[in-house]
Amino acid sequence: MLSRIPIHTRAVLMSVLAALLACFVLMPRGEAQESAVVVHLWHAYGESEGHGLEAAVRGFEQTRPDVDVVVTAIPFGAYASKLEVAIPSGHGPDAFIDAHDRLATYVQAHVIAPFGALPSETLADFAAPQVEALQWDSQNYGVPLNAKSLVLFVNRSLGDPDVFTTLESFEAWHRDGIVPLAWEVESTYGSAALFHAYGAHFLDAEGHYALNSPEGAEALQHLSLLPQGGTVPEESSGELVRNLFRSGHALAAVSGPWLAPDLTEIDFAVRPLPHVEAANGAPLVPFATIEAFFLSARGSESGRGNEAQRSEALRALGLYLASTEGARTRLNEGGHIVATRSAWSEASPAWQRACRDAAADALPMPTHPNMSRVFGPTDRAIRKVLRGEMDAETALTEARHRFDDETRALPEERSPTFAFVFVSSLLALIVFALAKQVSSPEQRIAIKRSMPAYAWVLHAFVIVLVLVVFPLFVGAITSFYAGHGRDLHYVGTANYEDILSARGGSLFASGSFYVVLGVTVLWTVVNVVLHVGIGVLLALLLSRPLLHFKTAYRVLLVLPWAVPSYVTALAWRGMFHRQFGAVNAILALFNVEPVSWFAQFSTAFTANVTTNVWLGFPFMMVVTLGALTSIPKDLYEAAEVDGATPFEQFRFITMPMLAPALLPAVLMGAVWTFNMFNVVFLVSAGEPDGTTEILVSEAYRWAFTRGQQTGYAAAYAVLIFGLLFLFSRWSLPKRAKATHPTKAAT
Amino acid sequence: MKPRELLVHAVLIIALIFALYPILWVVALAFSDVVTPQASAFPAPTNPSFAHFTAVLGRVDGEGRWLFARQLMSSLLVSVSTALVAIVIATPAAYALSRFTFVGKEFSVKSLLATQMFPGIAAAVPLYLLLDALGLLDTLSGLVLVYATSAVPFALFQLRGAFDSIPKELEEAAMVDGATRFGAFVRVVLPAARPALAITALFAFMSAWNEFALAATFLTREEHYTLPILLQSYASEHSANMGHFAAGAILVSLPVMALFYVLQRQLIHGLTAGGVKG
Question: Which of residues 223-262 of A touch B (CB under 8 A)?
């Protein structure tokens, strides 16, 4: 029977069957139906805190045998975006644990549901600000679990923790090779404590940027003196703070309770952050984040059992985790700095109690949705002042303008009638043209002749259409909408108008579409030239017939390709550190002054290019090696007979034979480089001041850090597509002629 | 050795240092017990130990299950399936694109090429909704489909080029001898394209093996996680442990390095069959 089917159709059938089989084998077995209520709880804790939470959940399950809690750890980096994608589409957890500062954003994105008022005996067990932080629009949204803030860790073997009570005492302390205070002052979160000490606020009551005040400028001025005077390390990151303190190279560190588990070999004490004499002796007040138990807004699905029973079980779980018993388990098993006051006793380690007290005195981060957009502009202002490019006041005024621009009102809704008429008439026109073509007799014959070929391509065609073309098409349509997350309304071409008019600012200001496009083109050209240059040079050397160790060279030189690119991008970022990076250490061997790689465009761009060249040259090398093997040897022999020099052989044989083979790879490489997001995002992160940003990373920022303006980011994506499409139209005809000489001849 | 030979080796050694230097830093970090921030030009571990490796390899979840082994299995399943799906779907179609002319061929090829120019982030949310509609969210097969969106177009171009470079005369001779088109394809063309098939499969495998962002978005069950997600959890904001991260990175890279070593000949001949015309 099967043999009657034409043989190529059979091939297609077999391949589809194989694909389906692969899918089937991978399909998970359905979960067995249980009588207990199953609830899903997500968290983003690391290993030890995760164990503490699981232990408390087991405790809950013992008191409530009718409830089965499935606990899932989500990687921190993907947590928020995952909640925002999954829950509004009816997936994700029934409840989750997260910091309170995203509360308002989650409410707007329909991610969380109100928890309802807390019982009064629970309320009495928390500090009032920690409960208030979970309110929005006069509703309570969660149960407070933990409170975290920055604290001061002091290395006892280097100094007496009770002596260092002011910031000035650190400024006066000097010892060779040891940093007085490991503190991440470059970041807004790290430096917030100093702004608060001077009485500055990040947002006013209406949610407008308020840091550009005299107090803010004074604080930033003081901040800029700290790295200059050697009080805090340069270009600090959380990782650097941790390593400096952990290895005994810092007298003290400003960090959070998460640092403590790593300090097994350090005799340390935890104290509140010091006071600032210059700010009339006011204390440094860090932000507090309240980790809370939230209910997801996931709609009730049919067949998920009794909803009333489930929601009762979820509330009971939240209240249990915050109860004395649940909190004590989390504290003892996972080192959680629990917010429940009755869970604490004198038996807890002194450092944990000090963290608890510091969090209680800290300022809960504002819940206003605009808070998340304070960080980007403020980070930039701080770095500009630290680099000495600008005075504090000007930098903060600029930050305010940037904040205003990123939070400005979305374009107004437009009537889709015109677009509807336009698109439908366009569709009608296309259908008409196609129908006319198909109805012509020659076309019919051609289509009939094509039938056997269609049997070979049909399945691939359908799969590409559904999996590749359709999602991209939907993504492109989003560019005509504006809004945050999934709250979108139709705005016609307003996003494109905004982008192409540089949001009403100067066309040549940093961050304008045209400037970023220029950087992107420069980035692509430099990278491709270096990829091809280095790749071809190495391939030519490796193809020398009598070369020793040829295989060893070849195998080792492709290794950069085998390591995941996000790993090596981070490694390169570390190597370009001003104080502790390997690149400056190498330069020091040649008596070159240390370079602040991310302080100027030219050096930051160089750092990005170095990383990307490192990632990309093996590909071009391998492509060239392959192309070289296909050049007939007798050509060189003939040339040698004719007395051609090695250079002439290269110029008149190798180059012309190589070029057509390399062209497709070069074009593909150009497209990949144009959209190379990882390197720019991880190495320079756009520094200094967003100048090294390329179009894709700019789109990413609009999509994820500037209030999730999905439509605006999609418009960027469509523009990138348009530019690359034009580029390929311009370069493809040449390629077609060059790569198909045989076809052209026949 | 002649001076010219010495110069060649000098250039290659400089390239080698450039290529290996950052990797050696990752290795040094992975074997360092406590990292001491010091400006140093030479990647050497401080207090060498295997602690990071044993911690990464020995990680268990709340119920005592061995996470590394499970996630290694997930990674292998997903990556091998991606490679298989890409090859199975793309091979016949790429052959047709290389050998037949048919109505709509030009347009299809151009459109396929155009999709490669669209930045992927534009498609993430629609793709999520699509998988949701298919009921494949949170399954490894769903993730394979997501990876197929980039692996299949790449395989189509790569294999089409490979078939272009295999002379038509080979299968024409087989067909004169009585083989069908399909028979000639299986017995003559596919064996000749073996290096290209191996390399195409290797790239599809690698793209899935190293991918993090999509895996973290589309999977929610810990036992389904692939290794890069495990890796990323060591680089999280507060409890970052770059030693664990580096050790994990080396463990993740080893299989790909081994494949590169095994397939080094195919790598050179398979990759370029696409562009080269003998």
Answer: 238-240, 242-244, 246-247, 249, 256, 258, 261-262
Output the pTM of the full model: 0.84
Interface contact A72-B140, CB threshold 8 A: no
Contact call for B101 and A453, based on CB within 8 A: yes
B268's tokens: 């050179």
The answer on pLDDT for B57 being more than 70 is yes
Q: What share of residues in chain A are helix, strand, coil (percent, to 5)? A: 60, 10, 30
Whether A582 has its CB under 8 Å from any CB of chain B: the answer is: yes
d(CA A582, CA B118): 36
Chain B positions in Cβ-Cβ contact with residue A588 (cut-off 8 Å): 39, 41
Q: Convert A516-539 to b/e letters by CB count within 10 Å (16 or more is b).
A: bbebbeebbebbbebbbebbbbbb
User: CB A438: neighbour CB atoms within 10 A?
Assistant: 12
Residue A234 near residue B39, CB atoms below 8 Å? no
A37-145+290-364: CATH topology: D-Maltodextrin-Binding Protein; domain 2 (3.40.190)
Q: What is the pLDDT of residue B212?
A: 82
Domain definitions of chain A by residue range: 37-145+290-364, 151-285+376-406, 412-458, 510-707
Query: In which residue ranges of chain A is pLDDT below 50?
Result: 1-5, 24, 27-34, 300, 302, 735-746
For residue range B71-114, list pLDDT tens digits in order.
899 999 999 999 999 999 999 999 999 888 888 888 888 888 88
**CB contact (8 A) between residue B96 and residue A456:** yes
- Do B37 and A623 make contact, defined as CB atoms within 8 angstroms? no
In angstroms, what separates the C-alpha of B240 from chain A's closest C-alpha? 7
A77 contacts B39? CB cut-off 8 A: no
pLDDT at A164: 92
Task: Please state which CATH number belongs to domain A151-285+376-406.
Answer: 3.40.190.10
Q: What is the mean pLDDT of chain B?
A: 85
Kindly tell me if the per-residue pLDDT of B205 is higher than 90: yes
Q: CA-CA-CA-CA torsion for B118, B124, B125, B129, nearest 10 degrees?
A: 110
Give the ranges where A336-440 is alpha helix by DSSP (H).
350-361, 375-386, 392-406, 417-439
Set of chain B residues whose Cβ sits within 8 Å of the Cβ of A254? none
ipTM: 0.89
Integer Cα distance of A72 and A86 in angstroms: 14
- Residue B272 is nearest to which of A447, A626, A677, comparing CB atoms? A626
Chains A–B, number of C-beta pairs less than 8 Å apart: 393
Pairwise pLDDT comparison (B63 vs A260), residue with the higher score: A260
Q: Between 1.20.810.10, 1.10.3210.10, 1.10.3720.10, 3.30.930.10, what CATH number should domain A510-707 receive?
A: 1.10.3720.10
Question: Which residues in chain B have their CB less than 8 angstroms from residue A551's CB?
Answer: 264
